[in-house]
Design goal:
By secondary structure, this protein is of the alpha/beta class. It has a single domain (9-257), classed as 3-Layer(aba) Sandwich (Rossmann fold). The chain contains 7 helices and 7 strands. The protein has helices at 18-29, 42-56, 72-86, 109-137, 159-179, 201-208, 219-231, and strands at 9-12, 33-38, 62-66, 91-94, 141-146, 183-190, 238-242. Strands 3-2-1-4-5-6-7 form a 7-stranded parallel beta sheet, with helices on both faces. α1 (18-29) packs parallel to α2, α1 (18-29) crosses α7 and α3 (72-86) packs parallel to α4 (109-137).
Length: 258
């Protein structure tokens, strides 16, 4: 691809900490201007902004944006706010996600609705908004939706979360069809990448090795896949599974339940 005449701008949702932060830092290092979205972690978002700026050496700009993406009005308002700050937006990485445990036995409309709003509705609205912005500019751009290897290796844990991510994976195809040629839509599906309060470090390290390649994905692997999806303008309507091959193995439970 030809080098862009200006710094490109990407909105990364849920990028104050954890995997979203790693994606934001990698893109800042690659020369992107990054809009760091957060819901509640204002201090972490400020640190991510500062660390992005340090990596970029002052050549591009960064800022933080608060929004509860489970609220439709907030989701619709986010991209115009980023456009107003940076002048133009070229890409969105839909990384923010609700991940709460339920099962088929404990399933409720309320649990499903909460996961669908945050994990499916908000990414679709942000793709819609970016497409409209690109049409106005006569430009092309890309949305990357963060998915989960779990969709190709299903188990019954986190029932509503999994349904919401399955819906987002289906939306990948439909959005890629509906919003071309202005917008490409690509999924990235990590395996077990970062531990959480649900899993002790020693257990995480053991489970991380349960993959055909001897380890699952590292944060750097996921960030590199996102950057590849953003830069390769021949990819749309598909998903990159970046999991060390974990989707090829059968797990009867979610990692956090094993």
């Amino acid at each position: 691809m030809n080098a862009p005449s200006r710094a490109r701008t990407v909105l990364v949702t849920g990028s104050a900490k954890r995997l979203g932060r790693e994606i934001a830092l990698a893109l800042a290092k690659a020369g992107w201007q990054v809009a760091v979205h957060y819901r509640e972690s204002a201090a972490d978002a400020s640190k991510t902004v500062a660390d992005c700026a340090a990596l970029a050496g002052g050549t591009v700009q960064f800022d933080a944006f608060q929004a509860d993406l489970a609220e439709e009005s907030a989701a619709r308002d986010l991209l115009p706010r980023v456009v107003a700050r940076f002048g133009a937006v070229d890409a969105v990485v839909n990384n923010a996600s609700l991940f709460e445990h339920d099962t088929a036995a404990s399933f409720s409309y309320q649990a499903l609705a909460a996961h669908l709003a945050a994990n499916t509705g908000a990414p679709v609205l942000l793709a819609q908004a970016l497409h409209g912005h690109l049409v106005q500019r006569g430009a092309q751009g890309v949305v990357v939706n963060m998915l989960d290897q779990k969709l190709w290796n299903q188990n019954p844990d986190f029932f509503s979360y999994t349904l919401s991510k399955a819906a987002l994976e289906a939306a990948n195809t439909m959005l890629a069809q509906a919003l071309a040629p202005q917008l490409r839509v690509v999924g990235v599906a990590p395996g077990l990448t970062i531990t959480s309060h649900l899993m002790p470090q020693a257990r995480f390290e053991a489970l991380h090795k349960l993959a055909p390649l001897g380890r699952s994905s590292l944060p750097a692997n996921i960030a590199a896949a996102v950057q590849f999806a953003l830069d390769n303008d021949a990819i749309t309507g598909t998903t990159l599974l970046v999991d060390g091959g974990q989707h090829l193995m059968k797990f009867d439970r979610d990692f956090s339940m094993m």
